[in-house]
Amino acid sequence: METIYALSSAAGRAGVAVIRVSGPASADAVRVLTGEGPGRPREAVLRTLRDPRDASILDRALILWFEGPASFTGEDVAEFHVHGGRAVVDGVLVALGRLPALRIATAGEFTRRAFENGKLDLTEVEGLADLIEAETAAQRVQALRQMEGALGHIYEGWRGRLMRVLAHAEAEIDFPEEEIPGDLTRKLGPEITRLADEIRNHLDDGRRGERLRDGVEVAIIGPPNVGKSSLLNRLARREAAIVSDEAGTTRDVLEVRLDLGGVPVTLADTAGLRDAVNAVEQEGVRRALARAEGADLRIVVAALRPDGGLEGDFSLAREGDLRVLNKADLGPSNLPGAILVSAATGEGLDWLEEALTQLVGEKAGIAETPAITRGRHREGLLACLGGLERALGALREERAIELVAEDLRLAARSLGRITGRVDVEDLLDIVFRDFCIGK
Ligand SMILES: Nc1nc2c(ncn2[C@@H]2O[C@H](COP(=O)(O)OP(=O)(O)OP(=O)(O)O)[C@@H](O)[C@H]2O)c(=O)[nH]1
Ligand SMILES: [K+]
Ligand SMILES: [Mg+2]
């Protein structure tokens, strides 16, 4: 196994930078730079780092030594906590690069080694990637939970039970007993049914976990000039979108990211909906409708007119969408089911934000039991469920036990692919794509 090294903290100037080395030559790397072997495992030592070519001083650094397999990667690991200046970091990296046994790590290679050495399963690797990407508090909680194995344990638990059922079925193939009709169904059926029910329940999560990971998509729609862009600017607390009294100001879909109660939200402003006056506006309207269609939630906006009449209506609102009547400053009004606001004065905006936060929280966020966070998990679980249902069907029809066993085997394999316990070579590049060098 080659020994790899990389800067593991972010590039650029910083107080401290961490350079990580992993592999059998890690102790040599410490020896060459400090003139001494590594200290005791997990105890920081302060050492002078010298360039091995001319003994010039590179830095005074803290060195942390982890003896494999009790390390992140499962191999011997040395961490150099150096001063985070560019010349210091470059000097140490160049010195390490001169050691013949060392080479620079590729993106995600430290984590990949952790996976290959059984330190993390694939769901835990994904949790770690999500933790590094987490922007909001709820995302952090979900990522940490997954990194600590919450999802992996559930899937491995199901796989263990499935393997036991499979063992029974296989025993039946090897040592067929006196066939009593329906006997096998009575033996295997209940546990397969229970497993299928549990997986079905887990799948029926309203995509909360996936939405929390990706962000909830909210689209603001309505006719021109009702104040959609003005409302977006209020919610974003900055002048993100152009506002004017000209109908048809907004053409492109404009997105801002919000953190509503810990849930990341992508709020989209869209072109006003009307029979467009030209091709560009027409394209804007097409995009607005497409975005509204794809969104998890719509804020449908109408506005009060100075004459007391109504601009727009809520015909595009679906159940669970927000209906907003803007320009409440123009006169008295009362529209049941609509939130009254004024983007001009700020009136009612607290309510709007509160209602939006509440709805978003219903669609995404932390539930008591860990939720599916990626389409990859969902696909694996659906494939597993399909196998279990086919196995149950085959049992009911009293088909050959070999066929039942084959379906159970496929179901177990689909579960195993989620955690990476069975042939996943083809998956690894996809899972590790999210990592950068040093991770
Ligand atoms: N009186 C009043 N005027 C408002 C309010 N909100 C927005 N306006 C005005 O209404 C006009 C249109 O506002 P925009 O935010 O550009 O409306 P829009 O819905 O994004 O318009 P398009 O992008 O053209 O579809 C501007 O002149 C705003 O200043 C409000 O609450 N009260
Ligand atoms: K406008
Ligand atoms: Mg606009």
Automatic annotation (TrEMBL):
Binding-site positions, (6S)-5-formyl-5,6,7,8-tetrahydrofolate? 20, 79, 119, 439
- Output the InterPro entries linked to this UniProt entry: G_TrmE, GTP-bd, GTP-bd_TrmE_N, GTPase_MnmE, MnmE_dom2, MnmE_helical, P-loop_NTPase, Small_GTP-bd
Q: Which residues are listed for GTP binding in this entry?
A: 225-230, 244-250, 269-272, 326-329
Which PROSITE patterns does this chain map to? G_TRME (PS51709)
Q: How is the cofactor bound?
A: Binds 1 potassium ion per subunit.
Q: Which cofactor does it need?
A: K(+)
**Its Enzyme Commission number?**
3.6.-.-
The UniProt entry's coiled-coil ranges are none
Instruction: Enumerate the Gene Ontology biological process terms.
Output: tRNA methylation; tRNA wobble uridine modification
Q: Which compartment or compartments is the protein found in? A: Cytoplasm
One GO MF term, please? GTPase activity
In terms of Gene3D superfamilies, this protein maps to: P-loop containing nucleotide triphosphate hydrolases, Probable tRNA modification gtpase trme, domain 1, tRNA modification GTPase MnmE domain 2
Enzyme superclass (EC): hydrolase
Q: Which stretches make up the TrmE-type G domain?
A: 215-361
Subunit annotation? Homodimer. Heterotetramer of two MnmE and two MnmG subunits.
- Put simply, this protein is called tRNA modification GTPase MnmE
Q: Which organism is it from?
A: Parvibaculum sedimenti
